[in-house]
Fold this protein.
Amino acid sequence: MVGLLMILFSATMLPPMGVAWWYDGYDVVLPFAEAMGTMLGLGLLCWLPVCRFKVDLRNRDGFIVVVAFWFLLSLLGALPFMLSHNPHMPLVDAVFETVSGLTTTGATVLSGLDTMPKAIVYYRAQLNFLGGMGIIVLAVALLPMLGVGGMQLYKAETPGPMKDEKLTPRITETAKNLWYIYVALNVACTLAYWTAGMSFFDALCYSFATMALGGFATHDASIGYFDSSTIELVAGFFTLLAAVNFALYFLAWRSRSLKAIFRDAEFKFFIAVMAGLVAATCGYLYYSGKFPWWESIYRGFFQSLSIVTSNGLTTVGYPADWPIFVPLLLLLGSFFGGCVGSTCGGIKAIRFLLLYKQSVREARLLIRPTAQIAVKLGNHPVPDRVMQAVWGFYYLYIFSYCALALALAMTGADLVTAFGSAAAGLNNMGVGLGETAGGFGVLNDTATWLLSLSMLVGRLEVFPLLLLFLPDFWK
């Protein structure tokens, strides 16, 4: 299984090779060709000796494959950065950049993007694109053609407390439909950026970063490079679309009605919270005198959506030159994230909604201890098993954040940098505070490895990694 996935991933080296051939020349093509050969060779080495054996995957096998593949991908995807002459990156930085791309975090140790080969810039954006919907979900759509089932992989990869729900009877069709929607939205986003004034190359790369909520830019100044209200409004709009559960888009398309979206309890809660955060950001920017009213609106709209949904693209001067209240508010908002089934990071809106309803339920039980009060989403009661999973996840997530922040402080980072960088990594948001506000190249190797691990923990949502350390899992 891991061999097949590596063989599939090796094919993703072809588009960067094409970009290198068109823009940069043979010297830039070669690192991608060498990386492709290495991945293909290792994949065949894993697959060929056992390709004749057909064994059904159990749930635990799916978790092992997903974790193993993400770690292998992080190492193999780093090869083009290490083999390239510009940039020529050491292992720790190359792995960090690759993990950041695949987990759609957008944190970077690179600078000088404006003068870097186009193929490297495109490759970073492509990592965002593949990681956005999850390369495992793509594999679920393709592996049945090779006689390998994918339900266990889908359950291990897909985040959220209600991942057993399927859009279609066949899990393969579910994965395909999600990818069709994802690609269609990327095409629409590319055309919108192009129309707004970007070059086609920039429009394509920024659409990958926007719809994946990935944050990798083609310029050091990110979206602020263009200094355009139209582009920032387009970016904010598609960031909002990317943070909505993609299953709702499928249901709306199948029913030919938007009612499926607007009736969803998580969507309504997400929009209400985002409206409050956007209003607070825009209002504070205006009344603090940072920007005039129109600039406060479009910059606040884009930046608040970008940070809270874990996109990580930034506008002019953010966060170093903005009033400290706004970066701090949005950093805390990044724990909220977006909807389950979207490309965002963070804890997710549905978990916060369930925790809020559970808190109200506990308060009411204090008044009427013998009452039978159910936690409901819409008109449907939520099983106690789901609530237990939400509480367990919330505890592990906050514990992981505190442990990571303390570990970063032990490496020598100041407290603002440590807590800001920990949130940027674990929430897959990518914009730090303090020393890492302008990039993560200032951290030492130990801190860089820690953040690489934190991005994987955030992307896999803690449990798949934790399971591997439980003795019961191996019995």
About this structure: Residues 384-410 form the longest helix (27 residues). Residues 145-151 have pLDDT under 50 and may be disordered.
